[in-house]
Amino acid sequence: MRSRSTARTVIAAFAGVLLAASVAACGNSDTGGGSGDGNDKIVLGFSQVGAESGWRTANTTSIKEAAAAAGIELKFDDAQQKQENQIKAIRNFIQQKVDVIAFSPVVESGWDTVLKEAKDAKIPVILTDRAVDSADKSLYKTFLGSDFVKEGRLAGEWLVEQKKAASGPVNIVELQGTTGSAPANDRKKGFAEAIAANPNLKIVASQSGDFTRAGGKQVMEQFLKANPKIDVLFAHNDDMGLGALEAITAAGKTPGKDITIITVDAVKDGMQALADGKFNFIAECSPLLGPQLMDLAKKVKAGEEVPARIETEETTFTQEQAKEALPNRKY
Ligand code: GYE
C-alpha cells in the first residue's frame, strides 16, 4: 500500500518534470523572442516619455508596480522627452529579443520605420497613453489610454456653461502640451470645438509649455506681458497650470478669481490647487495604466486577440468635488 502510493508520487513528480520541460521548450521556441536565459518570465521593454509631469511620475510608478505584481520582467527606459531616444530604446529592445514592447510615443508622427522593424522581428507592440498617426494599423496590437479630444471638449463645455451670461468677449490663453503630441493635438481640438458654441469665447494666445511647470510659468509670463486682458487660462495639464500660477501671482493677479483656470489630469497637486480655489475646473486623465498594460502584455504574448483600442474611464472635478476627492487621491 505504502510502496504503491510512493510509486504514484514518483510517477506524478516525473510527469510534472516532463510537463515543465515541455512548457519551457515551448517558451524557448517561441517566435516572439524571449530572454533566452531559461527563465520563462515575460520580458517587457517599456519606453517612457520622460518625467515631465506629476502625471508621468504616477504613470511610471503604476507600470513598475504592476509589472512586479504580475511577475513580468520590465526593462524600463526614460527617453527624456526625445523621440530619437525612444527610437534607440525600441531598437535596443528588439536586439535584446524582449517578448513585448510597449511605449508612450512622445509625438504622433515618425514611427513607421522602427515599428516595422519590431514587426519584422515578430515582437508585438502595445501603445500606451499616447497614439501614433501610422496609417498601417498592423504595426501595433492595441492602444491603451485616454480619449484626449473628449478631455478637451469637457473642459470647453464647462467654460461655455460658466460664461453663458457673458455679454462681451472672453479672452482665453492656452498652454499647449508638447508640440506634436497626441494629448496636445487632441485637447486643443476638443476644446476649440466646444467653445465654438459661444462666439464671445476667443483664444487670444496659444503656445506650448511642453507639459512642464517651468514651461507653463515661462509662457504664461509672456502671455501676461502681451495681453492686457486675460480672462481664462486653459492649460493642457496640471503642471503647466501650476507653473502659470506663479506667473499670475507675480503679475499681481489672483488665480481662480481674476483668471479662470482650467487644466487636465487631476494629479494631487492639481487637485490641491483646485480645492484651494486657485484652479476652477479639471478634466481628469488617469495615469494608472499599469495593471491593464500587464494584462495586455500577457495576452499579446500568448497570441490572443485584443481590442484595437482600450479607453480609460475618466471624470471631471469642480472645486467642491476636488475637496471631497482629495483625501482619497492616491497620486
Ligand atoms: O496629461 C501630461 C503628461 O500623455 C496623457 O502627458 C499624457 C500627458 C499628461 O506629461 O501631464
TrEMBL record:
Q: Gene3D superfamilies from the xrefs?
A: 3.40.50.2300
Task: List GO molecular-function terms, semicolon-separated.
Answer: carbohydrate binding
The family database entries (Pfam families) matched by this protein are listed as: Peripla_BP_4
Compartments reported by the entry: Cell envelope
Where is composition skewed (Basic and acidic residues) in this entry?
A: 321-331
**Cellular component aspect of the GO annotation:** cell envelope
Periplasmic binding protein domain boundaries: 46-305
InterPro entries the record matches: Peripla_BP_I (IPR028082), SBP_2_dom (IPR025997)
Q: Where is the signal peptide?
A: 1-20
What family does the Swiss-Prot or TrEMBL record give for this protein? Belongs to the bacterial solute-binding protein 2 family.
The protein's name is ABC transporter substrate-binding protein
Organism, as annotated: Micromonospora tulbaghiae
